[in-house]
């Protein structure tokens, strides 16, 4: 049973019991309906309490059922809630911990609600590209008030139950529990057992908190605000229209309007992508051969080697989480610079009101520095972020091997070097792991956790848990050049270069990529990161893979000293102190000459071709990564791109996008690209995994 039924005196208690979050799947809905019917039929029962077992009242509809016949099978959530609301005996919702989505909607169908303090209350459907589809948009404005309900529905953000209880005139909670929730819920049930008529939220009028509010003006203002903030996401505006219906329509008509909105959103690619991202994010923590109950090592003190760009940002993550950090450098000036940068970052947050002075002081107090390895030996985790040179890494890891206590985790932030080689500089390769942060490391969500050939399972498990503590999305990658993200981006950059050779301007490529939804096109991104970084990588590649073709335009650019924003000249021109990318006549001339030297007649290239070549290059490389076992699953690749590379969230990541386009179509396009003599025919051969999926009519997911 996924809901239990028990009799306490004259009260029937129905307890949702569908771990982990009491999702309202079909079997749970059936069990609740059966409980209500049983209480109806039992003359000895005077009232009903509905609550949730474990760590949630309910996390809402079972998202895993979406798209399957189970989601619509009766009783669906709407009909279950109607059944509860129509019960002839009072039904009390005893709400605690998490009350979200369909769970909150179920409670709004109950006649009374009592909540424990600290309950996270939300209608988060909008985050899945949906709107609350079981009466939430009609009942919450009636119970809570239009303005706060609209805020909750359009943002999807959880609000603490105590705060909601303070909303003037609210009827969301009849009572806040002050002691044991179940005892107080049973007491409330006994108290109201004979009260008639039964109060129903549907009978209330959707009410504005603001006296004299002008509904038309209010919703028009809200439309402008929400529309401006939710470009590419259809759900927020539909949420708003559904809430407006609670004011302008009768309850049953409002429910019909809500239902139509829910059904329309459910089939949008945006909702598909957001639901994919929801599960993809949670899947990243699962490692096939590392069970979730693998014991972890205690991490209470962290050492960071190198206080440069990355070392400073990495340290901030741990300071923010309340963990002490000691930074080690070779020179005092470098330490002073690193500490000053961290302080400056915190002070910027202070100025913006994002951090309080006492928190700033507490974080800085957790930071210490040293020039001596003797001072870091007792750390539980050490993260190396020194220059990207194998000799420097070797010296550092040999030192660490000498001084670190047995069992300490030794991590490297290398972005291109061989982690197995680094691990073998020590006599304890099992304790070595890659922690590849992205710049700025205190801001970017992504952490690639690089699993070396010898990395111990408990080391991996520890780092994954720690990543959650510092609020990173950790994705496991095997060892290869560039790991998941940068190995893929290299193919994307190569395509961007070929597009220039063939006739595009940098601005045209960037415009197409940004119109598709990338936070930044490849050339603006290159200017921001520094074109010299890619130049150094290509120089290495020319040695390693002399037959691999690159456009030479990026090398020519670097030979002109145009490294990007830092030199005020890159693919674009920049004015001092500004970040606006201005198309550069120097670059246009450079490209003209380059094409002429190659006897290329420039051609017009459409946005579709630009975007498809960029994105499918990611997809094909990722299929190789999956085949090689470097990436565990396609949805991990999507998380890397969503959290580390500015891939548009509403497209769900490159693999989800490819699935939505259809892998057959993706491969057909790749075959066309392979025929272009200026492109790389060999690269466009579909990766074996991709070819197999197409042959079997399957998708990545
Ligand atoms: N349905 C199915 N599974 C769910 C779920 C749901 N609504 N909510 C969470 N889960 C699963 C997760 O997939 C995860 O599974 P896993 O262990 O197999 O990976 C597990 O529960 C734990 O989830 P989290 O790791 O997120 O646990 P947290 O404790 O950090 O957070 C939570 C719990 C706050 C409930 C969070 O999971 C959450 O925000 N869930 C989504 C809630 C939501 O969007 N509800 C609306 C559903 S749509 C709806 O109700 C439609 C209706 O209006 C018709
Ligand atoms: P950086 O040049 O800003 O900082 C490196 C720091 O290490 C300097 O302060 C230097 O004094 C110090 N250092 C050098 N040798 C040392 C030694 N033997 N002992 C102690 N300290 C030493 O470099 P950055 O950008 O912080 O990069 C560090 C590492 O992070 C590199 O491995 C790099 O590949 C990696 N990385 C860099 C990213 C970036 O965007 N900058 C992104 C992800 C990883």
TrEMBL record:
Please tell me whether the keyword Oxidoreductase is annotated for this protein: yes
Coiled-coil blocks: none
Instruction: List localization entries.
Output: Peroxisome
Q: Which residues form the signal peptide?
A: none
**Pfam families assigned to the protein according to its UniProt record, in alphabetical order:** 3HCDH, 3HCDH_N, ECH_1
- Ranges for domain 3-hydroxyacyl-CoA dehydrogenase C-terminal come to 482-574, 610-698
Q: What is the name attached to this protein's record?
A: 3-hydroxyacyl-CoA dehydrogenase NAD-binding domain-containing protein
Which catalysed reactions does the entry list for this protein? Answer: a (3S)-3-hydroxyacyl-CoA + NAD(+) = a 3-oxoacyl-CoA + NADH + H(+)
């Amino acid at each position: 049973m996924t809901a239990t039924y028990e009799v306490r005196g004259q009260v029937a208690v129905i307890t949702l019991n569908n771990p982990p979050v009491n999702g309202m799947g079909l079997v749970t809905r059936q069990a609740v309906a059966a409980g209500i019917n049983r209480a109806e039929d039992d003359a000895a029962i005077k009232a009903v309490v509905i609550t949730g077992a474990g760590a949630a009242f309910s996390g809402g509809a079972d998202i895993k059922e979406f798209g399957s016949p189970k989601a619509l099978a009766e009783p669906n959530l709407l009909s279950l809630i109607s059944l509860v609301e129509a019960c002839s005996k009072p039904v009390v919702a005893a709400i605690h911990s998490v009350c979200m989505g369909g769970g909150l909607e179920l409670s709004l169908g109950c006649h009374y609600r009592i909540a424990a303090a600290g309950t996270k209350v939300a209608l988060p459907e909008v985050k899945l590209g949906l709107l609350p589809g079981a009466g939430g948009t009609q009942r919450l404005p009636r119970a809570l008030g239009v303005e706060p309900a609209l805020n909750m529905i359009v943002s999807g953000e959880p609000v603490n139950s105590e705060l909601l209880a303070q909303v003037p005139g609210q009827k969301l909670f009849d009572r806040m529990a002050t002691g044991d929730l179940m005892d107080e819920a049973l007491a409330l049930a006994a108290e109201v057992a004979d009260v008639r008529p039964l109060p129903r939220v549907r009978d209330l009028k959707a009410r504005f908190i603001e006296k004299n509010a002008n509904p038309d003006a209010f919703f028009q203002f809200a439309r402008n605000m929400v529309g401006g903030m939710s470009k590419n996401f259809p759900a927020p505006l539909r949420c708003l229209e559904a809430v407006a219906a609670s004011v302008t329509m009768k309850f049953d008509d409002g429910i019909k309007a809500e239902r139509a909105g829910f059904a329309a959103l459910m089939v949008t690619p945006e909702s598909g992508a957001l639901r994919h991202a929801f599960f993809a994010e949670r899947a990243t923590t699962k490692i096939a051969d590392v069970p979730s109950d693998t014991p972890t090592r205690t991490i209470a003190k962290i050492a960071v080697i190198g206080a440069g760009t990355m070392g400073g940002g990495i340290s901030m993550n741990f300071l923010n989480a309340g963990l002490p950090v000691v930074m080690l450098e070779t020179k005092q000036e470098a330490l002073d610079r690193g500490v000053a940068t961290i302080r400056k970052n915190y002070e910027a947050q202070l100025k913006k009101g994002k951090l309080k002075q006492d928190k700033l002081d507490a974080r800085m107090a957790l930071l210490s520095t040293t020039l001596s390895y003797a001072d870091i030996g007792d750390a539980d985790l050490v993260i190396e972020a020194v220059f990207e040179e194998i000799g420097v890494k070797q010296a550092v890891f040999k030192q660490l091997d000498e001084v670190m206590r047995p069992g300490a985790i030794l991590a490297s932030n290398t972005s291109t070097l061989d982690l197995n080689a680094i691990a073998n500089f020590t006599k304890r390769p099992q304790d070595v792991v890659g922690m590849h942060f992205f710049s700025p490391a205190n801001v970017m969500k992504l952490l690639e956790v690089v699993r070396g050939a010898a990395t111990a399972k408990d080391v991996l498990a520890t780092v994954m848990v720690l990543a959650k503590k510092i609020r990173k999305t950790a994705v496991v990658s095997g060892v290869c050049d560039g790991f998941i993200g940068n190995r893929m981006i290299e193919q994307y950059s190569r395509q961007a270069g070929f597009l220039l050779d063939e006739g595009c301007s940098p601005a045209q490529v960037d415009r197409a990529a940004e119109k598709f939804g990338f936070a930044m096109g490849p050339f603006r991104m290159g200017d921001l990161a520094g074109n010299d970084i890619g130049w150094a990588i290509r120089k290495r590649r020319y040695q390693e893979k002399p037959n691999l073709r690159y456009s030479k335009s990026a090398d020519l650019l670097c030979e002109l000293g145009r490294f990007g924003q830092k030199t005020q000249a890159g693919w674009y021109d920049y004015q001092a102190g500004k970040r606006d990318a201005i198309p550069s006549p120097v670059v246009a001339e450079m490209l003209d000459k380059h094409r002429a030297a190659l006897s290329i007649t420039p051609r017009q290239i459409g946005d579709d071709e630009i975007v498809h070549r960029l994105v499918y290059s990611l997809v094909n490389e990722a299929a190789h990564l999956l085949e090689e076992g470097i990436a565990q699953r396609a949805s991990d690749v999507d998380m890397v791109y969503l959290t580390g590379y500015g891939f548009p969230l509403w497209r769900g990541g490159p693999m989800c996008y490819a699935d939505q386009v259809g892998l057959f179509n993706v491969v057909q396009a790749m075959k066309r690209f392979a025929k272009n003599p200026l492109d790389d025919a060999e690269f466009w051969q579909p990766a074996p995994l991709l070819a197999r999926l197409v042959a079997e009519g399957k998708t990545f997911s």
